[in-house]
Each structure stands twice: as C-alpha cells, then as structure tokens.
C-alpha cells in the first residue's frame, strides 16, 4: 500500500498499516532498493516541534541563497485569521528590565547575550533564528543600535497580534524589510494606517512587543519610564520607554454600559454579555474573536480586552464615575495633572489616566480614573446618557465628538517634507540648485562640470544650430538689496560686486537682447502659510546667436541729483546715457510677458528709492 510522503507533517500515522522492513539474507538487490525508496518516502523533510502556542518550527534551508524577505515575497500571502484566531502580545525575550511597577519612573535594563535570546513567539532557542532588520528606538542621544529581536521565519508568519502580517511588511509597497512588531505604532496599525504607522519617532513598551508614537499615539493608562540601558560597551544610555496598559492590575467591574459597544444598538430583547475587565457590553454574535493562542475565549471578556487595543490620549471618552452614571470627558497626559492631584494614590500608575471633565460646556476640572471605567465616546452616547442634560451641555458633547471624528489622520514631518518637495519640484536632478523651470526640450545633455561644455563637437544644440530663443532664462541678477540710506551712500540700488555671478559681465545697451524681470521664489512652506522672496532674472527678449554679446538696459534714473554715466553702445537709437532706452514700450512688454509665462509681471512703476 503506498505511503504518503507527508505522514509526519499531517499529525500522525494511526490509521496507516504497519510495514515490515525486516531484511532477509535472500532478498534480491532490486527488492532492497525498493525498500530503501519506501523508507526514504517515510522520512520527514523536517521534524515537528510544537511550541506553547501551537506553531510549527520550520528550519530555513541553508542551501537557499535567497534572503528571508525574498522567501516571504515568493510565497502566496496567506489569509490572515485575525481577528477570529488571534495571538496575545508576546513578551520581550531580548530585553531584561528591572522594574517593580512602583511610582518611580526610573529603571535599569540590559540586553542578554545573543546566544541566550529566544524566539519571541515560541520561546525556543533551537533552530535557525533570524534577526530583525530594524534599529532599537528610544535612546535619548540617538545612538544607533540594532534591534535584538529574534524569531523563526515560520513563527513570524503565524504571529498576528494587532493584525501583524510579516508577509505584507516585507512587500515593496510597505517596508521591504523583515521587521518585528516593535517598529510600527500599534494604534495606527490597527486603525489601518499601515504606511504612516512605520514613520515617526516610536517609544517601545519595556515588557511586551508593542510600540507607539510618542507624541500623538500615547496610549491611555500607560506610564513613562526612563530606562538606563547598558549596552555592550558597558556604558548606560538613557532610553525613553513606557509600560503599556496591558500590564495593569486588572479588577472585576460590576456596572456596564447598556448598549453593545460593537454595533451600538440598544436591543432589550437580545441579552447583552458584560465584560469582567471593563465597562463594555456586547452581543455574543458581535464578538468576532473565537480563540486566543489556540484556546477558546471566555464568554465574559469583550473583544477590546481580548485584542489588547489601546485608546489614544486626548480622545473624548465616557467615564463611569464613583460606580454611578457615565459622564463625558477627555483623556489627558499626566503632565497636565493639577498640583492638588499629584499626591493621589493612583497618580502616574499603570492602568489609570487623567480625565478632564466636560462641565457646562467647558473642559476645566480634572480627576483620576481607571481605564477599565473609560470607553471612547460613540454616536449613541448622546442619546443614551444625555437625556437629563441641558441644551448647552449637549451641544458641547456634540462639538467634542465632532472634533474627534473630523480630525484628519496625523501627518508626520517626513510626509510633509516629501509633499513639499513634490509640490515645489522644479528640476529633474537633485543636484540642481536653481529654482526656475527650464523645459527639458531646450536643454542639452552637456555635463555642468565639463570645462568645454557646449562645444562645437559635443553639444547637440550647437550641432543643430539651436540658439537662445526669446524668453529663455539667462542668469539670475543676484546682488545685495539695500535701503535708501545705503543707496545714498553708495549711489546704487543693487551692488553685484560681492557676488561671483555671470550677471557681473552683462553690459548696458540701448538696444538690448535681454531684459530683467521679477520672479517670485518659494522659500519655505509652513503650517501658517508659504514664504516667498522676490528675485530678478535676466531673460532673452530676442533670438541670440552664437558669440553675440548679452546686454540689457540699465535704466538708470537721476534720483540723487548726480550725473548719469554716458552710454557708448553705438546703436542707432542710443540715448547717450545709461538710462531708459528708446525701445518701443509695447513690444518690450509683450516680450516680458512671453519670458515669464507662469508669473505675473510687476507693474511698471518708478522706484522710490
């Protein structure tokens, strides 16, 4: 009877017949060869090792030259079982923190030797352990050190706490690297912001595999820690970490909401299940979690507590106060605590938060409450718990709720910088420093640093007799802008002798082939607006042939009762002085408009300097 090759991988051979491999002296060579083939078919490709969470320990084939990222990309992305079958947040196996959960904010920590670091999923040290590609975050002086997290490749694929998916993270459209859960914000990732979750400054939990954005996503009920982390060099570095609310001391809650927190429907006919760890109620059919760590879940625990979700600070919440009714408020940071509450026994304790109450339409009074008594405000909360409130109070509730719902997703500084560069991009090359737009069709391929740039042999524009057309940018007229007092002292408006620019060598002519125009250059893009600066550019107003001198009209005016220098340009309509030329004003205006297509031409007014 044929024997399946994956007998050991399918979980046993109870129903398979016993096969006798006893060798006899009279067995023929062909029969022995057949027995060897059948014996090799029974040999498993990989021994099975069961961990505490039911994962299979798969050894990476050393003969495979591909990286772990390439191996995961080559596989078909498996259907994520989250949140039906989830895993709890794993404890840190690569970090030893000495902290007793007291009111102090200081703790000592160190990394164990690499040989003693276990897989953070299955807690085994055998097999091929892979290292995380990320960097450890939180060190105050920004000292870079690698992340010490280790894991088996197959264990990482099956880990799905907070909807973690290693196969998605290694994709090019995500991070393109093999990263552990300490390198993205846990709250943002659950909110489906799976790109911005990896950006920004993260602060890690000292006891589990979770991280959060320090400024915008600090979880309600956490505690800040200043950890003195000892590295391999023996020096202790100050590191910013937190203790997330998953490590709080849980107590049983007796009073609950009267509406399902998942569907927000108050159905008196259908019985609500009440969570033993928080004030939430839920319909059994609304809870999607069926098992945690391959174990069935209890009926008296809500999905929020099972998945270990967190609520951001500054979120509008409903708080059960003194085992009575629910009142609206907002979760605040510990540093906003009034002095009178800083001696409270639950001040800065894991599992408690500062609540700013909404009273008479104002956020002004504070109290300390357990996060088990808090739940994010939802749409039905106004109808359920605002029946006995005044109209002003209800309007304040609505404003607080609308402010949270209409808040756009957070934008990190790095994303703002990328958007600014895209919006203000003028050149195709990053090395170019000019801030003007030159059409690609008018530019040759000559290297900027070439000594014989645009020579007769190499330049495509020279070979095709392509010369400078009207409106083509020549150079920026750079110089120093001075006030009227300095003008009287120097008898000039812009002095360019201090700048080594090409405009230093452009002479005056009463029949010029160039003209100065004013351009608006974007300098900074800030939250309160954009900052621009006016610059002067020299542009062509007619076709300029090879070896033709560049000139423009200086248009000097007698403002200081001093003589205007004489002009010796020699053209037919020479005015005799370095003053305004006799060019037809209408033709000159049309050429200026052609030279600055996208910018408004400044009004032709006399300078008052």
TrEMBL record:
UniProt KW keywords: Chromosome, Methyltransferase, Nucleus, S-adenosyl-L-methionine, Transferase
Compartments in which it is found: Chromosome; Nucleus
GO molecular-function term, one example from the UniProt record: methyltransferase activity
Domain SET: 439-555
InterPro entries in alphabetical order: Post-SET_dom (IPR003616), SET2_Histone-Lys_MeTrsfase (IPR050777), SET_dom (IPR001214), SET_dom_sf (IPR046341)
Record-level GO cellular component terms: chromosome; nucleus
Main location: nucleus
UniProt region (Disordered), positions on chain: 582-609
One of the GO BP terms on file: methylation
Residue ranges occupied by any Post-SET domain in the UniProt entry: 563-579
Name the record gives this protein: SET domain-containing protein
Organism: Caenorhabditis bovis
